[in-house]
Write a structure and sequence with these properties.
It is built from two helices and 23 strands. With about 300 residues, the protein is mainly beta. The protein has two domains: about 150 residues, no CATH class; about 70 residues, Immunoglobulin-like. The strands form three sheets. It has a 16-stranded mixed beta sheet that branches. A hairpin with a 4-residue loop joins strand 7 and strand 8. The protein is globular.
């Protein structure tokens, strides 16, 4: 689950800081569009841009070619390759230097700087890599058409057109996008698919993005159990199905869920009479449902 604690307070601090620079900055924060295309001819100028660590909970690390240490509030990711990595049950909140919003970093997630630039017409280019894990973005609209805020995963590039969405990147690169406000463009294999508020889609590595479907507030689990004895060990095979966007963990270990929401787990138990399995199904809305399965 993404940690959004204190984000509103952080936003207020950044927002009022921007107001002090005048009405032009105020307009920049409140409106605008993002274009995914790299075909713009604007000259990109290097500048002192950054993402700043605003909140750390648990084991969070700041890493680059020269550093690997616990992250601290106030750390700045400013160079290509700088990254924040969270451990299990750990989260972080990053603010964008332009004051446009926040990146909420969930557990077991990596966020890496790919590009931070300013164009010759004062547009802001922010490109981040998320090779694994989950992030929730709260981003204000741009007024400058040259500005972009993109997230790259192994399977897809997402471009913000506003303003709040979740990206969940699985170990195999499969990426699930859920848009809660505004709209987000997904692009892969020369195909663009716009995901509007209240919709979600997925992108499989090497394939174009799927067409959007409504976000489901659904934590249902369909399953069947197969029991086997092999070389003196009793094995329980749990075959299940959930919504494709949901996450499944069994006894604290996240399972691999395919594009159709199906998974298969092989568990070994010492008891020949009884096995207890704890299954947690989580959806993009942050809701969880726990199933305590008792197998005889």
């Amino acid at each position: 689950m993404i940690n959004n604690i204190s984000c509103q307070n952080l936003w207020n601090k950044k927002f009022f800081g921007i107001l002090s620079y005048g009405s032009a900055a105020f307009i920049l924060v409140l409106s605008g569009n993002v274009d995914l295309s790299d075909a713009q001819s604007q000259l990109q100028v290097k500048t002192n841009r950054y993402l700043q660590v605003e909140q750390v909970r648990g084991k969070v690390f700041f890493r680059n070619q020269n550093t690997n240490r616990p992250a601290r509030k106030g750390d700045r990711l400013s160079t290509i390759g700088d990254e924040i990595a969270t451990d299990g049950k750990s989260t972080a909140v990053l603010s964008v230097d332009t004051g446009i919003g926040f990146v909420n970093v969930s557990e077991k997630t990596v966020v890496r700087i790919d590009k931070l630039q300013i164009t010759s017409d004062d547009g802001r280019i922010t490109i981040l890599q998320v090779p694994k894990g989950q992030v929730r973005l709260q981003i204000r609209r741009f007024s400058n058409p040259s500005s972009r805020f993109n997230i790259q995963t192994p399977a897809v590039v997402t471009g913000v057109r506003g303003t709040e969405y979740v990206l969940n990147v699985k170990d195999d690169g499969r990426t699930i996008l859920s848009t809660f406000d505004g709209a987000v463009m997904t692009e892969a294999q020369n195909t663009e698919v716009l995901v509007d508020k209240g919709f979600q889609n997925q992108t499989i590595l090497g394939e174009p993005p799927s067409q959007p479907v409504p976000i489901q507030d659904n934590n249902d689990l369909e399953y069947q159990v197969i029991k086997q004895f092999e070389e003196g060990d009793r094995k329980v095979i749990l075959i299940g199905k959930v919504d494709f966007a949901n996450t499944v963990s069994i006894d604290g270990v996240e399972q691999s869920v395919d594009r159709n929401g199906q998974f298969r787990a092989v568990l070994t138990t010492n008891s020949i009479y009884r096995a207890e399995i704890k299954v947690i199904v989580s959806n993009p809305l942050g809701k969880q449902r726990t199933y305590e399965l008792v197998i005889f």
